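User: Run a structure prediction on this.
Assistant: Running it now.
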Amino acid sequence: MATQTADTITSVINLEIRGLRAQVEDKEILKGIDLVVPQGEVHAIMGPNGSGKSTLANVIMGRPGYKVADGRILFKGQDITTLRPDQRAQMGLFLAFQYPTEIAGVSVVNFLRSAYDAVKGEKTSALAFRKRMKEKMNLLGIEDAMVARYVNQGFSGGEKKKNEILQLAVLEPDIAILDETDSGLDIDSLKAVATGVQSLIGPDLGVLLITHYQRILNYITPDRIHVMMDGRIVLSGGPELAHELESKGYEGLRKELLGGE
């Protein structure tokens, strides 16, 4: 049997979190997270409100205001713990926000072109970019009228999340972190957004999907599910773990893990 060298392992693992502890306003939220998300796999993080899921997403992306107290974040074999968010994005990380921001006066198409140029480090002609964006819009079923509007201004919840997925499609990161993409969506919007994400999943994209509920996993089948409570990952398993959570609830699982206390 061939042995794996350190270099071989590094080439396979795209995002690795080791012993991560992080604070927000001097309050410890993450209390020792270990997690590996390989490119080409979908990993879901589930957990109750206040468990630290969104904090984890923001810390991975380097959002200001989140202080890493201990541990490391590695991406493509490089320690990115102290890198700026734009540097992480240029390396191939992407974060879809739970609550996308409105940007008045900036059209979706102009925003996307600027983001694409910044991430790729090159200037793209308007014609070339429009062709690229149109291919992604056709794939996701997004109409021209949406990209002509100002970013998220007057958008419904479903439109905001569709816009986030369009950004994901256009930027083509190696690892995408989707922070509660299903939050606030009705059944039809959830299906449309989840189907869009599913169409982008493949060997070149790894996904860390953060969610409260099992319902989005009806459309996106994860390779692994991790349950987060009180700033720690307390349980990991296959897709069947979502159904176990659905039946037991987080409190039921917590009592089971504590031995019935």
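The first strand starts at residue 15 and ends at 24.
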